[in-house]
Write a structure and sequence with these properties.
The protein has about 210 residues and is an alpha/beta fold. The protein has a single domain, classed as Rossmann fold (3-Layer(aba) Sandwich), CATH 3.40.50.620. The chain is built from nine helices and six strands; from the N terminus they run βαβαβαβααβααβαα. The chain has a six-stranded parallel beta sheet, with helices on both faces. α2 links the parallel β2 and β3. The longest helix is centred in the N-terminal third of the chain and has 13 residues. It is globular. The model has no long low-confidence stretch (mean pLDDT about 95).
């Protein structure tokens, strides 16, 4: 992977990654290839403002699992921009910091269609949209978002949004955590290294 000064367009893939699973990997790789990105930065969030109703796995454990994933691919890197600042960790603020640090780099923000549905309720969604160069959306089961209607709520959204094709992620971190708690098989949703990490560190109720 080259230096940031050698990179023209980067996809930023944000999440808690609790844990990072094969669906995350598929989405990041599809975005990389379909959008001809130079890199995908996995943007790990220490304490997401919209997930206040459950206990989040300590950031160090999530970071170590994420490193297991990103070390397998030359095009993947971890962004610690949210680890180097104080909460709350709103996407609008994070995107502004990234763009300020690397104004010459195209900023593609990668989200799932469920997050697109929630976008009007995000903190300063108009500011977020004006900061990024493109919004890449992965289709999710049960969602069929009307971009025209969303564009009325956040003007300019339709022009900046692109849907990834030939990918439908049905795996979720919450599903994996629930299967672990119930004693069901779960390792087939994870890379081998992440599954071994969860087992050796007794995460998620093991």
């Amino acid at each position: 992977m080259g230096r940031m000064s050698d990179i023209r367009t980067v996809g930023y893939f944000g999440g808690t990654f609790d844990p990072p699973h094969l669906g995350h990997e598929m989405l990041a790789r599809e975005a990389f290839f379909q959008l001809s990105l130079d890199a995908v930065m996995w943007l790990i969030t220490p304490d997401p403002p919209h997930k206040t109703k459950r206990e989040i796995t300590p950031i160090q454990s999530r970071l170590e699992m994420l490193k297991i994933v990103t070390d397998r691919y030359d095009e993947f890197m971890i962004s610690e921009v949210d680890l180097q600042r104080s909460p709350p960790y709103y996407a609008a603020d994070t995107a502004a910091i990234i763009k300020n640090n690397h104004p010459e780099v195209g900023l593609v923000y990668i989200i799932g269609e469920d997050s697109l549905h929630d976008l009007p309720g995000w903190y300063q969604p108009e500011r977020f949209l004006s900061t990024i160069d493109q919004l890449a959306v992965a289709p999710r089961p049960g969602f069929n978002e009307d971009l025209v209607a969303l564009d009325e709520k956040i003007p300019g959204l339709k022009a900046k949004t692109v849907f990834l094709t030939e990918i439908m992620i049905e795996i979720s971190s919450s599903l994996i955590r629930e299967r672990i708690k119930r004693g069901l098989a779960y390792d087939h949703f994870l890379s081998q290294g992440v599954a071994e990490y969860i087992e050796s560190h007794y995460l998620y109720g093991l």
